[in-house]
Amino acid sequence: MKQRHKQLGLTVSLTGLLWSGLVLAEEAATKITDPHFKLAPGYLNPADLPLRLALLGAPPKPDSAALARDE
C-alpha cells in the first residue's frame, strides 16, 4: 500500500511541475517596447534594400586584362 501511495504522490508532483512549466512557457513571450531595440536610423528596411545582382558589374571579357587579374 505504501508503494502505491509513493507512486501516486510522485505522479501528482511531476504532473504539477509539468503543468507549471507549461504555464510559465506561455507567459514568456514579451513585447519589446524599448525604442533602443528597433531599427537604427540610417539602416534600410528589408523592402528598401537594392537588388544585389544589380550592384555587381559584368564579368570580364575573354582575353582582357581584368580577366588576367582575376585568374
Written description of the protein model:
The chain is built from three helices and no strands. It is mainly α and 71 residues long. The longest helix is centred in the N-terminal third of the chain and has 26 residues. The chain is elongated and about 90 Å long. The N and C termini lie far apart (83 Å). The mean pLDDT is 79.
**Major sheet size, sense and barrel closure:** none
From the helix content, strand content and strand pairing, which structural class follows? mainly alpha
Parts with pLDDT < 50 across at least 5 consecutive residues: none
- Shape field: elongated
Measured as a percent range, the helix fraction is 40-55%
> Could you tell me the number of beta strands?
0
Based on CA atoms alone, the radius of gyration comes out at 31 Å
Bin the strand percentage: under 5%
Average of the residue pLDDT scores: 79
The termini sit apart by 83 Å
The SSE order reads: HHH
Helix count equals 3
